[in-house]
Amino acid sequence: MLKIEHQYLPSSDELPDSDDTPVDNEDQNFLPNLLLFLLEHIWKDRQDWFFGADMGIYHTTGSNPRIPVVPDGFLSLGVERRKRGKSRGSYVTWEENYIIPVLVLEMVSHTYGKEYDQKLEIYQRLGVTYYVIYNPDFYQRDKHAPLEIYKLVAGQYQLQSGEPYWIPEAGLGLGRCVLPSDPLQREVLAWFDEENQRYLTPEEQLDLERQRIMAESQRAEAESQRAEAESERAAAEKQRADMTQEKLNLLMAKMRSLGINPDPDDFSPPS
To answer: What is the pTM of this model?
Structure first.
């Protein structure tokens, strides 16, 4: 680690926001921003976290604090959601109380970026607890798994197992899935709860709420139709009873006209 007095370190205003290296494909933009978008929904009431996408991390564990490492995504905990109420252009560790991201994500593309060696050593030296390498397209070329998660143990990264992989520091699991609502049916990374249930996107939650409301409406409509049918049945029954009584009244009147005095009890239905 560089031994540099804090007062001699450059401020974030003096540092470039990134290394200006373009991403190799659209997924390198989409996937980290999807994780950020989901976190904004999951942690909407929290203000102690930051997720950066394609953003430079400036640190003092390399050869030059002005040269950032730029992962595809990273999660830092225990920091302001917005730095002094403003958007960050980069993540400068000495302006974040030297809080190191708990998780870093690197995505492998057709141009190998030394994710399995040089970058692993950088994040290991930096002290990132979880290093995630996502390589869905070139894992066979690189002789690795499509998703690998390394945990820093005693200063060395150890490959972990299990998916979704639980990250207790964040209270979240990380794993792969295909979003049912995605017309492209892309495999993506997503957050999971402790029961290994994927956190839904806001759109999926709205769809579920619409389905719930529709089902409730259908149940109410079925109950209304049942009540209406019961009312109609009762009305028909009353009408039949009224007609029966009317016929009895006519019959007794006819009998009286013939000099017969009928006993009404004889015409009552059996009890």
So the answer is: 0.75
